[in-house]
Each structure stands twice: as structure tokens, then as C-alpha cells.
Amino acid sequence: MLPTVAIVGRPNVGKSTLFNRLVGKKLALVDDQPGVTRDRREGEAHLLGLEFTIIDTAGYEDEDPHSLPGRMRMQTQAAVENCDVALFMVDARAGITPLDEEIARWLREGDAPVILVANKAEGKSTEAGVMEAFVLGLGEPIPFSAEHGQGLADLFQALLPHLEREDGEEHEKEFYEDEESAPLKLAIVGRPNAGKSTLINRLLGENRLLTGPEAGITRDSIAVDWMWTNDEGEERPVRLIDTAGMRKRAKVQDKLEKLAVSDGLNAVNFAEVVVLLLDATRGLEAQDLRIADKVLEEGRALVVALNKWDTVEHGSALYQGIKQALFDGLAQVRGVPIMTVSAATGKGLDDLIKVAFETRTAWSQRISTGVLNRWFEVALEANPPPAPGGKRIKLRYITQNKTRPPTFVLFGTRLDELPESYRRYLVNGIRKELGFGAVPVRLTLRSAKNPYAK
Fold this sequence. Notes:
Elements: E1 4-8, H1 15-23, E2 41-47, E3 50-56, H2 68-81, E4 85-91, H3 98-109, E5 114-119, H4 127-132, E6 142-143, H5 152-163, E7 184-189, H6 196-204, E8 222-229, E9 235-242, H7 255-270, E10 273-279, H8 286-297, E11 301-307, H9 315-329, E12 338-340, H10 349-364, H11 369-382, E13 394-402, E14 407-413, H12 420-434, E15 442-447
Parallel strand pairs: 1-3, 1-4, 4-5, 5-6, 7-9, 7-10, 10-11, 11-12, 14-15
Antiparallel strand pairs: 2-3, 8-9, 13-14
Helix pairs in contact: 11-12
Keywords: GTP-binding, Nucleotide-binding, Repeat, Ribosome biogenesis
Function: GTPase that plays an essential role in the late steps of ribosome biogenesis.
GO molecular function: GTP binding
């Protein structure tokens, strides 16, 4: 495990900008308005050869613990309690505020070492703000600019004594010999208030993600590493990815919500299996089908989970109705697994993870060319390709050139005239006969070039 560094401070001092600079990617959402970050986000930071886990936290606000800002503060406090070092960030342009002083008092009472960072310290006009930070009683502030990368060497020197291993050993990274033992990258997507963060908290057994009655609490896509224990008692690594709720595009007017939805769609690209979480009390809506279609379009394996199943009446009729609607709405992939779960009670969650692992196995498998072409010959014999205009379409052989998603190349002549219905016949046969189930399968057609075509 890498040592952990938590960035804390009041809203809009530049915490997410520093986080993005240290991880080398724009992972955290950044905007001029305060309070963009709500959940704590982790990333692997690299600073002049120093490696550590960096945690971006929500802006610390003095509010009622039951309010949304109050619950955000509790997430920040949990991050600091478990970190090796806290980076306390203040705004050198704005100077020290009463809230900065309150945060400093709280940090002084804790056990974590604190490094004071005076951000936005570009130019001489901010020198007074940097000097003012001495009143916080946390030692000498580091003049810094997260936006421009100034002060990184000073930050490195301040972090080094806290993060270096006493025995001189480097922190080990985990390597996996094969795809099956690698962490399952599992993204949870759905409309706002479907219970995505609650589900992940239930799996983890802790309030790791911010939840509440308000719709749209989650903004950033948050990844959390976790170990799942299967029926045989074997531990399997999982990377759980929580995403922002996705509403209809026409309803998404707010700039931050657009950024959050875009971040969620980006998380789908990095996932292996995606769980589309539905609120069973609201049934299946058109937006759910749009999200599912987007997941399959990106070639990800899909599992549908009906949440809040413990509160549903006439469950059998509802289940059959949703199953039929998915069958009709997702014509390109029939038979997507549908699970009934309750994030509130934990019922069905173990089965959900088990099915997610099985789905990844199908999504990752490779079929030998020999087995594939034996199936292909039987498929052609059972249903020969059509002969448009009296001229036969010749299908010669098929091969699998990629996995994750499984992708096949079909070779033959006059393939530009092959009807879409016959192409679907082959794809459905691959799924059904070769064990791919309901994962997205891609089929590319390739004809030999005719030297006499001109």
C-alpha cells in the first residue's frame, strides 16, 4: 500500500486543481464556483519520483452535520483520520479567513502531520497573504500555484520526511499474472437517486461515499478498491466506480451537471462490467434504455440491477415487464442479466458481484480458430447465406481478432450485399453456441480485393 496524503481546506482554494496536477490527469472536476467536490476521490500521485495516494476532499464547511455540507465535512474528517499527511491549503490571494482558522484548530488537535500550502501565490502581490498564513500556527507555509505548478520542489521537500519508508524499501505495487486475477473494474450507472452510492457503501461496509435524500449528490466518478469474498472463501479484488446520475440530455442545463455526466460516461469507457442500477419503484424508463444502449455501444459488458426490491409490490409482474422491455429495447444484446437487489439491506448484492465476475469472464474469452470455424460450418449448413440477384455470397472463414469486447472478422466475397438480418444470425449464434451470453459481440466483414475490379 502507498502512503496517503489528504488535501483539505475551505471551498474554492484549489484542492482539486492540485489533485489533478499530482496525478497527472484531469480526474477531479474543476470549476470557478465553490463546492464542486463532494465525495473524497483517490488517485496515484507522482511528485519528482515520490509516489503516494492523494485524496481530494470536499471543501470544509461549518454546517449542521445532517445537512449536505455537514455530511461532506464528515467525509473530509474521515479522510484526514486515516491519512499519513494532511496538506492544508489556503488562498494566498484572499488571505486567512475565520473558517481557515477553525480548520487549523481542528487539524492541530488531530494526529496527522500537517503541511501548510498557500495556493494562488503567483506574483509579488500575494506575498502578504502567504505571510499572513503564519498566524495559523502550523509552521512555515509553502508558496504554491496549483494552476501553474510553482512550488512543487518545496512541496516535495516537505512531504519527503513523512513518506519515506524507514527501512528504505519501496512501496510494493500489485501485479496480476492474468486477466482473471486482476481487479474487476465495475462501474455503477443510472438515473439520479437510484441508490448507486448507497449500494457501494453497503458493499464496503462503511459510509465511504456521500449519500442522502437529495438527487444528484455525486458529481465526480469515484473509484474505490475493495476485496470480495466468494462462496469458496477466496478473495477477489474489485475496483468499484460510482458515477453521477444521468438525466435526459434536454434536462441537463447546469454546467457542473454536464461535466459530471461526461465524467460518468468516461468512467464507463474504463470499466469492464457496468451495472445499470434501476429504482424498482419507478420501473424502467426511456432514459434507462438510453444509458444501457450507450454502455453496449462502448463494448462494455452490461448487468441490470433492480434496486429497492424490498419495497416493491407485485414483484413478479414488474420483473417480467422490465425483462420484456429490455428484450424489446436492446435488440443488439438479448438476455442481459437482471438482478434484484436492495442497497439498504444488502440483499442480492453478493449474487450481483458473482454475476459481474462471470460476465467479465465471458467478455474476455477467446475462441480458437478451429472451434470457431467448426461452429461456422454448421451455422452455414443450417442457414446458407442468401443469393441476391441470383449470385451467391461466399463466406469463407471467420476468426476472432480481439477480446474485451469479443470481436470477430468474417472473410468472404460480395460481403457488402450481406443482409443485416444474416449478420445478426451469425452474432446471435456466436453468443448462444460459443458461451458469450449477453455480452456485446462485434463482427467485421472483410472481402478480398478483386484485382479486376477496375
